[in-house]
Amino acid sequence: NLAEKLQNTFTNLKRRGKLTEKDVELALKEVRLALLEADVNYKVVKTFTEKVRTRAVGEEVLKSLTPAQQVIKIVYDELTALMGGSTAQLDLSHSPSVIMLVGLQGAGKTTTAGKLAKSIKEKGRKPLLVACDIYRPAAIKQLQVVGSQVGVEVFSLEGQKPTTIAQAAYKYSNQNGFDVLIIDTAGRLHIDDELMQELVDLKKILSPQELFFVADAMTGQDAVNVADSFNQRLDITGVILTKLDGDARGGAALSIREVVGKPIKYASFGEKLDSLEPFHPDRMASRILG
Amino acid sequence: VLKGKSLSPELFEELEEILISADIGVGSTMEIIENLKLRCAKEKITSGDEVEEILKDEMAKLLGEKEQLKPAPTTPWVIMVVGVNGVGKTTTIGKLAAKFGEEGKKVILAAGDTFRAAAAEQLEIWAKRSKAQLIRHEEGSDPAAVAYDAVQAAKNRKADILIIDTAGRLHTKTNLMEELKKIRRVISREIENAPQDVLLVLDATTGQNGLNQAKVFKEATEVNGIVLTKLDGTSKGGIVIAIKKELSLPVKLIGVGEGIEDLQEFDPKDFVNALFS
Ligand SMILES: Nc1nc2c(ncn2[C@@H]2O[C@H](COP(=O)(O)OP(=O)(O)OP(=O)(O)O)[C@@H](O)[C@H]2O)c(=O)[nH]1
Ligand SMILES: Nc1nc2c(ncn2[C@@H]2O[C@H](COP(=O)(O)OP(=O)(O)OP(=O)(O)O)[C@@H](O)[C@H]2O)c(=O)[nH]1
Ligand SMILES: [Mg+2]
Ligand SMILES: [Mg+2]
Question: What is the pLDDT of residues B266-276, one digit of tens each?
Answer without folding.
Answer: 999 999 999 99
